[in-house]
Amino acid sequence: MDIFSIAVLLFLVTDPFGNIAIFIAALKNVAPERRLWVAARELLFALALLLLFLTFGDKVLSALGLSREATAIAGGIILFVIAMRLIFPSPQGVLGDVPDGEPMLVPLATPAVAGPSALAVLMTLRNTHEGALWELYLALVMAWAATAFILLQASFLQRFLGPRGLTAVERLMGMLLIMLSVDMLLDNIQSVLHIQP
């Protein structure tokens, strides 16, 4: 995968359109003049968490003794499950009830943006990417920047697209993610079959 492909993958996993409603709900009790600042702070926290997992995720997988193909196939399965959630969301939403007051780390930085899915995919990419490490960091920053831009416009996008528009965009992202996950699975299953004697 090249830098752009990785950035698109990470963008889809962070699911900015699906998180618009969460950001609006979590910030509804925050003073209007502080909402943008709080949202930006939470997005920076999310970036720090994502960079942390990208930096040390491979050490976790190495310590567990997992092969490149096993982690890539597991990553493909995780992406497929995420995609199915995007296309067929549960009635309870992603996070359920959002606590009152000004959010701090939870639920906006994590699990909304830097959720378990994004962190797992980062660990998998770190262990399976064959290019230079800086490519992963650049792709992550690109994906985060696009996600941050969308989420900082959450109120405007909700008014502009409406509930049906947001649902349509999220399901389209789910379809793209299914294609990426199936491609990842097929590539690595093929790789395993070629290795076998």
From TrEMBL:
It holds the Pfam family MarC. Belongs to the UPF0056 (MarC) family. GO terms for cellular component: plasma membrane. It comes from Phytopseudomonas argentinensis. It is found in: Cell membrane. Keywords: Cell membrane, Membrane, Transmembrane, Transmembrane helix. This is UPF0056 membrane protein. Its main location: membrane. It comes from the Bacteria. It is a multi-pass membrane protein. The chain crosses the membrane at residues 36-57, 69-88, 108-125, 137-156. InterPro entries: Multi_antbiot-R_MarC.
